[in-house]
Amino acid sequence: GPCTECSCSFGKEPDKDPSHTKKKENGDQLCVPKIFFGTRTHKQITQISRELKRTAYSCAPMTILSSRDYTCIHPVVSNSSNRNEMCVELLEGKHGKSCSYYHGAHKLSEHHALQPVQAWDIEDLVSLGRKLRACPYFAARELMVGADIVFCPYNYLLDPQIRDSMDINLKDQVVILDEAHNIEDCARECVSYGVTESQLRAAREELDFMVSNNIRQQHHEPLRAVCCSLM
């Protein structure tokens, strides 16, 4: 029978939640937020995805964002010490070569094994990528568009440069940080930079040259003063 506490007892249409029915001023429908789950290490992501498989939410659309160190399968780039730079050079075709794995990323992101059936981890993604000769790194980024849960290391959420490069927008999203007592150290690392004395000396010499030749003196003199004070 009708409830006594709500509008249906009076034969009226119950008020619908405006957050689900109204449109924004620009005409876009309000979207269900994504869950960004940040962890300290890549290894912990594997553990969490294993636990996700055991829950009722195992079939939720998901993806795992990780560095090229873990997901690059290009035979040359993956064995290089500067994978990021080599990958960018291949994508830009600087040396007249391109990456066939990158161009096959859609085959991996659309594969049935990664669709909402069961949770997977980085090893599953890389293994399937090798089989399909498709890039796991960019496939994982493509999967983020339709994912409900996005797993990634802390710095992907804290570092603004990484967020920008990975097209991560945290506005109106849900952010979960596992072992959050490590956040202070990670945040400090995101805005810190290490420099050697020899690098400072080289920078000072270049700035000396700029200042002595009256090249944008007003900009280079303060920088030279910083180098000298640090040394």
Automatic annotation (TrEMBL):
A Gene Ontology term for the protein's cellular component: nucleus
The keyword Nucleotide-binding is assigned to this record: yes
Lineage: Eukaryota, Metazoa, Chordata, Craniata, Vertebrata
SMART domains on file: DEXDc2
GO molecular function, one term: DNA helicase activity
GO biological process assignments: double-strand break repair involved in meiotic recombination; nucleotide-excision repair
Domain Helicase ATP-binding: 1-227
InterPro entries, alphabetized: DinG/Rad3-like, Helic_SF1/SF2_ATP-bd_DinG/Rad3, Helicase-like_DEXD_c2, P-loop_NTPase, RAD3-like_helicase_DEAD
A Pfam family hit: DEAD_2
Residue ranges of the TM segments: none
Top-rank taxon, per record: Eukaryota
Protein name: FANCJ protein
UniProt key word Nucleotide-binding: yes
UniProt entry keywords in alphabetical sequence: ATP-binding, Hydrolase, Nucleotide-binding
Source species of the chain: Anthoscopus minutus (Southern penduline-tit)
